[in-house]
Amino acid sequence: MADDVVVVCRQLSRIYDDDGVPVNALDGVDFDVTRGDFVSLAGPSGSGKSTLLNLIGGLDEPTSGNVVVDGTNLADLDQSQRSDLRLNKIGFVFQSYNLIPVLTARENVEFIMQLQGVHAAERHRRAIDMLSSLGIGDLGDRRPGELSGGQQQRVAVARAIVTHPVLLLADEPSANLDSKTTEGLLDLLRTINREHGVTIITATHDPMVMSYARRRVHLKDGRIESDERAGALTV
């Protein structure tokens, strides 16, 4: 795999059982992402975009085909090794935020670094710096229930990028956010992408999110229907 390619998917399929009826969530998808790109996976509900995101992140396993992330074939890893890969190379932003309610914003940001074994003083400093850079440094001692949706999403982003991941995966990052908050979040993601070189893949149905991505991949019925970049459409 070339050094500038961070994600490679080959003939990727995922079949679910729906009360005895097989459902092809993904059907033979080939998909590459270059390092430093900003990609949106778009399509209607059930098109396969979230399934593809979960397979890339190692949260689910394909029925057939394989996924390579930063040179590592996920099929070669056991569950523990997959967890290590996610911990050290992949950041996740979920539409439900997935913050730990009993922890403060700062403690939520520190959580992944704690799992990585980062010294307490260092992770405390990095968490404060990251929250401050996202404009919520004064909210570090508040718990998720004391924050607005936009503030919680920024904490989730801070937690995802504070470890400097190779890849950031965001599933419906604008869900439950108003347009102004969504715009602020997308500005933040674009800055992370451009200034820090973090590769970003989002799954979304939001046209605003799509407009910020440099590449828009549209899925339908588990297959890639179109792949658009800089005005050039590839089908």
Task: Describe this structure as you would to a colleague.
The chain is an alpha/beta fold and 235 residues long. It has one domain: P-loop containing nucleotide triphosphate hydrolases (Rossmann fold), CATH 3.40.50. Helices cover 35% and strands 31% of the residues. The chain contains 7 helices and 11 strands. It is globular, with a radius of gyration of 18 Å. The mean pLDDT is 90.
Looking at this protein, list some descriptive labels.
Rossmann fold, 7 helices, 4-stranded antiparallel β-sheet, 11 strands, alpha/beta
Layout of secondary structure:
Blueprint lengths: L4 E14 L2 E14 L3 E5 L6 H8 L7 E6 L2 E2 L5 H11 E4 L11 H12 L3 H14 L15 H13 L5 E5 L7 H18 L2 E6 L2 H6 L2 E6 L2 E7 L2 E3 L1
Parallel strand pairs: 3-8, 3-9, 6-7, 7-8
Antiparallel strand pairs: 1-2, 1-4, 4-5, 9-10, 10-11
Helix pairs in contact: 3-4, 3-5, 5-6
